């Protein structure tokens, strides 16, 4: 058995296709969706863990590439180091899922890990290195 954590990037025309179903049915994979952001008319992004036979996993990767799904390895989990954060809000607008968000009552920034799709758009924005990747 092989295991792989990857990020699947779907072009808009594939958003409504049953791709994860095909991975399960045609390639005998166990698909664990860790995070997803799917918006009509836009690219979708899904962080998944795939488990299955090694050669079937390779075939599934080829299937995805042929369809036009861009597959990236997941570098690691995003970590937010609260003690380094000065709540400057620079990371709020680049974050597409509002995983980094501002509480307007307290004017403090918080990180919602469940919303993070590991797109890394916030990484180079933070001047205080409060956002890092935890490599696996
Ligand atoms: S990696 Fe950063 S920008 Fe991307 S979803 Fe996670 S917190 Fe937001
Ligand atoms: S950019 Fe860095 S310091 Fe500024 S709010 Fe975001 S995490 Fe905090």
Structure write-up:
The chain has 136 residues and is an alpha+beta fold. The protein folds into 2 domains: 2-73, Alpha-Beta Plaits (2-Layer Sandwich), CATH 3.30.70; 77-135, Alpha-Beta Plaits, CATH 3.30.70. The protein has 2 helices and 8 strands. The chain has helices at 19-27, 54-67, and strands at residues 2-10, 30-37, 44-52, 70-73, 76-80, 100-103, 108-111, 131-135. The protein has a 4-stranded antiparallel β-sheet with strand order 2-3-1-4, with helices on one face. It has a two-stranded antiparallel ribbon with strand order 5-8. Strands 6-7 form a two-stranded antiparallel ribbon. Strand 6 and strand 7 (108-111) form a beta hairpin. The mean pLDDT is 92. It binds iron/sulfur cluster (2 copies). One iron/sulfur cluster is lined by residues 78, 94-95, 97, 99-100, 116-122.
Specify the structural class: alpha+beta
- Percent of residues in helical segments? 10-25%
Low-confidence stretches: none
Number of strands: 8
CATH topology of the largest domain: Alpha-Beta Plaits
Tell me the number of helical segments per DSSP (H or I, 4 or more residues long). Answer: 2
Number of domains: 2
Helix and strand run: EHEEHEEEEE
- What is the spatial order of strands in the main beta sheet? 2-3-1-4
Distance between the termini: 19 Å
Bound ligands, each once: iron/sulfur cluster
Short key terms for the protein model shown above:
single chain, 136 residues, Alpha-Beta Plaits, 2 domains, two-stranded antiparallel ribbon, 2 helices, 8 strands, elongated, binds iron/sulfur cluster
